[in-house]
Model the fold of this input.
Amino acid sequence: MKRYFVAGLMCLMFAGPAFSKDNHKHKHGHKHKHGEKHRQLSAHEHGSGSFNVAIEGNKVAMELEAPGADIVGFEHKARTKKQKVAIAKAKAKLKKLANVVTLSDAAGCELEKASIELHIEGEDAHDHGKKKKAKHSHGHKHKHGHKHGKKKAKAEETHSEFHAEYQLTCSSPEKLVEIAFPYFKNFKGAEELEVSVAGPKSQKKFEVERKTGKIDLGGII
Ligand SMILES: [Zn+2]
Done:
């Protein structure tokens, strides 16, 4: 009897906080589950990106998703030459994996393939529509007076994300015990990465911040 009682109590004690924690997670989850409105660009948090690693045999796949704010400092479509150059440079930088992560030398990993894409949400078609409507309703009284305000509002509406995918082959994947993130040095707007690593032994999540800079893969590989 006593045992049952204790077990029941434990259950209550744990069920409560665990449950609310779960709810909390759901509310702030920036990932794919909440993509009802915009599946590609779910509500991201500026400063925070995600980095996924999957290790299978001697193949390693890595994927980075980061807000444009973190990588180039803006999220609207590049308009000026300077902005276009910034995006081209960022893509080139991301294409070199060593600018994002460095891996234990002993693992003998080589980059086979890298692809970088920039997704911009809500530009072009939709925005043009909105602009026209806005002009119609406000058009006659204030002519061109509020350029700055308009620009700001538009920049806030638009979001962009860089998606980078890397495929590597490692001669000794079991020796991949550490991943460091030069990413933070190279991309000044980035503050943290939610890292998830799936290895042959287990799966683990890490929160890597600018200060931490690296993770230990002990027990995963
Ligand atoms: Zn954004």
Remarks:
- Residues 2-28 form the longest helix (27 residues).
- The helical segments are 2-28, 68-71, 81-95, 124-138, 147-157, 183-186.
- The CA atoms of residues 8 and 14 lie 10 Å apart.
- Residues 1-39, 124-155 have pLDDT under 50 and may be disordered.
